[in-house]
Amino acid sequence: MYKSGKAWGQTEEKADHLMDKASSAASHAADEAKQKGEHAKSSTQDAMQSAKSSTRDTMQSAKSSSQDAYQSAKSSAESATDKASESAKESKDEASGFLQQTGESVINAASGAVDAVKSTTAGAVNAVKNTTAGAVGSVKSTLGMSDDGSKR
C-alpha cells in the first residue's frame, strides 16, 4: 500500500501541477483577450473619430461650396440688375433727348407759324390801310375836298 499511496501522492502532485499550468494558461489567455478587446475598442474609437472628422470636413467643404455658389449667383444677379438699370437709364436719356429735340422742333414750327401770321396780319393791315386811304381819297375827291378836309 505504500506504493499505492506514493503513486497517489505523485498523481495528486501532477494534477496540481497541471491545474496550475491550466490556470496560468487561462489567465494568460484572458489577459491576451482583454488586451485584444481594448485594442479593438481603441481602433473602433479611432475609426469613429476619423469618420466624424471626415464628415465634418466634407460638410464644411459643402457649406463653403454652397456659400461660394450663393455669392456667385448673388454677384451675377447684381451685375444683371446693374446692366438692366444702366440700359434703362440710357433708354430714358435717349427718349429724353428725342423728346427734347421734338419739343424744340414743335417750338420752332410754332414760332415760324406765329411769324407767318404776324407777317400776314401786318400785310393785311397795311392793305386795309392803303385801301381805306384810297377810298377816303376817292370820297374826298368826289366831294371836292382837300386832304386837310376843307372844300375846294
UniProtKB/TrEMBL annotation:
<feature type="region of interest" description="Disordered">
    <location>
        <begin position="123"/>
        <end position="152"/>
    </location>
</feature>
<feature type="compositionally biased region" description="Basic and acidic residues">
    <location>
        <begin position="11"/>
        <end position="20"/>
    </location>
</feature>
<feature type="compositionally biased region" description="Polar residues">
    <location>
        <begin position="42"/>
        <end position="70"/>
    </location>
</feature>
<dbReference type="InterPro" id="IPR039624">
    <property type="entry name" value="LEA1/2/D7/KIN2"/>
</dbReference>
<feature type="compositionally biased region" description="Basic and acidic residues">
    <location>
        <begin position="80"/>
        <end position="95"/>
    </location>
</feature>
<feature type="region of interest" description="Disordered">
    <location>
        <begin position="1"/>
        <end position="100"/>
    </location>
</feature>
<feature type="compositionally biased region" description="Basic and acidic residues">
    <location>
        <begin position="29"/>
        <end position="41"/>
    </location>
</feature>
<protein>
    <submittedName>
        <fullName>Late embryogenesis abundant protein 1</fullName>
    </submittedName>
</protein>
<feature type="compositionally biased region" description="Polar residues">
    <location>
        <begin position="123"/>
        <end position="144"/>
    </location>
</feature>
